[in-house]
From TrEMBL:
<feature type="binding site">
    <location>
        <position position="84"/>
    </location>
    <ligand>
        <name>ATP</name>
    </ligand>
</feature>
<dbReference type="InterPro" id="IPR036390">
    <property type="entry name" value="WH_DNA-bd_sf"/>
</dbReference>
<comment type="subunit">
    <text>Homohexamer. Forms an RuvA(8)-RuvB(12)-Holliday junction (HJ) complex. HJ DNA is sandwiched between 2 RuvA tetramers; dsDNA enters through RuvA and exits via RuvB. An RuvB hexamer assembles on each DNA strand where it exits the tetramer. Each RuvB hexamer is contacted by two RuvA subunits (via domain III) on 2 adjacent RuvB subunits; this complex drives branch migration. In the full resolvosome a probable DNA-RuvA(4)-RuvB(12)-RuvC(2) complex forms which resolves the HJ.</text>
</comment>
<keyword id="KW-0233">DNA recombination</keyword>
<keyword id="KW-0963">Cytoplasm</keyword>
<feature type="region of interest" description="Large ATPase domain (RuvB-L)">
    <location>
        <begin position="19"/>
        <end position="199"/>
    </location>
</feature>
<feature type="binding site">
    <location>
        <position position="189"/>
    </location>
    <ligand>
        <name>ATP</name>
    </ligand>
</feature>
<feature type="binding site">
    <location>
        <position position="80"/>
    </location>
    <ligand>
        <name>ATP</name>
    </ligand>
</feature>
<feature type="region of interest" description="Head domain (RuvB-H)">
    <location>
        <begin position="273"/>
        <end position="363"/>
    </location>
</feature>
<feature type="domain" description="AAA+ ATPase">
    <location>
        <begin position="69"/>
        <end position="202"/>
    </location>
</feature>
<keyword id="KW-0347">Helicase</keyword>
<dbReference type="InterPro" id="IPR003593">
    <property type="entry name" value="AAA+_ATPase"/>
</dbReference>
<dbReference type="Pfam" id="PF17864">
    <property type="entry name" value="AAA_lid_4"/>
</dbReference>
<keyword id="KW-0067">ATP-binding</keyword>
<feature type="region of interest" description="Small ATPAse domain (RuvB-S)">
    <location>
        <begin position="200"/>
        <end position="270"/>
    </location>
</feature>
<dbReference type="InterPro" id="IPR041445">
    <property type="entry name" value="AAA_lid_4"/>
</dbReference>
<feature type="binding site">
    <location>
        <position position="328"/>
    </location>
    <ligand>
        <name>DNA</name>
    </ligand>
</feature>
Amino acid sequence: MNWDDTAPPTAEDAAGAAADRLVAADADGEDTAVEAALRPKDLEEFVGQERVREQLDLVLKAARARGATADHVLLSGAPGLGKTTLSMIIAAEMGAPIRITSGPAIQHAGDLAAILSSLQEGEVLFLDEIHRMSRPAEEMLYMAMEDFRVDVIVGKGPGATAIPLELPPFTLVGATTRAGLLPPPLRDRFGFTGHMEFYAPAELQRVIHRSAGLLDVVIETEGAAEIAGRSRGTPRIANRLLRRVRDYAQVKADGVITREVASQALGVYEVDGRGLDRLDRAVLTALLKLFGGGPVGLSTLAVAVGEERETVEEVAEPFLVREGLLARTPRGRIATPAAWTHMGLVPPQQQAGGSGQQGLFGA
Ligand SMILES: Nc1ncnc2c1ncn2[C@@H]1O[C@H](COP(=O)(O)OP(=O)(O)OP(=O)(O)O)[C@@H](O)[C@H]1O
């Protein structure tokens, strides 16, 4: 898609906007193929998330010592931070097989009953996007988690009967980007909840070095630091940027990723020093240059960048807000002083005689 294009965006453009981006946190087709090879296999290898790792290590060791199945685990956090990877590590550490499914794939209670009844003893069931499961399936899950039993309803209407079905003990690992959306009865049935945080640049640097080793890519410390700084706190993005920089290094340099090579490569892909891409910068440029830094309404801002409201709100804004470059206020969107600096512009307060934004940032 072209963010300079003046043609109105189609609904398809809006839906594709997130997926098209090199800095999107969701997996694309290429990621899915490569990620399996890059996943850490045990807690030792898993970089960062010290608290979750330490707590989980205790939970798993204790379960192993008791010869029991591990407690159910809930992992919450943004996409690409390693929830699927951790669930596989849990299975590996418990020496158990793993079954992977997701909330949207379980629309009927019967779908869930079929999965649960075919689990082996001790198996790990990874349920991604658990907050998107249907209500009846969710209610069936309560009983399965607590009593390792489900009631299968046979027949319809007044003649329907519930046949109890015993399940082998299993470990449910639920993953969600929004722990707050889970109904309390479901949340309460997890023995352990781990909140995954965005990664610090030094941690991402370790992820990049590790992946470079697995991909047989030569990378200098400075090169890894350059990629880490643009990876938006997310290992999936770090790995993706690494692959694009590797291409550039092979074609335009001698294959070695130095700071300069990484910086030039990511310049070609329009990912700037802070990890903003073209859409992010289009939003900031419009906000700063057309609206003097705001406040401006979301719809107006979206029209100004030729995007759908939803694309600006859900795809661009969360990272801009997290980075402290944009704020959502009751009066509209405003740019923070850091946004002016980042885009190489002078905030109005500092412009000679400028009064445009004074007093607005606290709104
Ligand atoms: N702590 C980590 N150390 C090293 N690599 C990691 C780490 N966390 C994630 N990765 C890598 O990042 C990629 C994405 O991780 P993963 O699929 O586990 O994320 P996720 O949180 O499950 O994402 P989603 O919610 O979109 O499914 C994988 O290739 C994985 O190897």
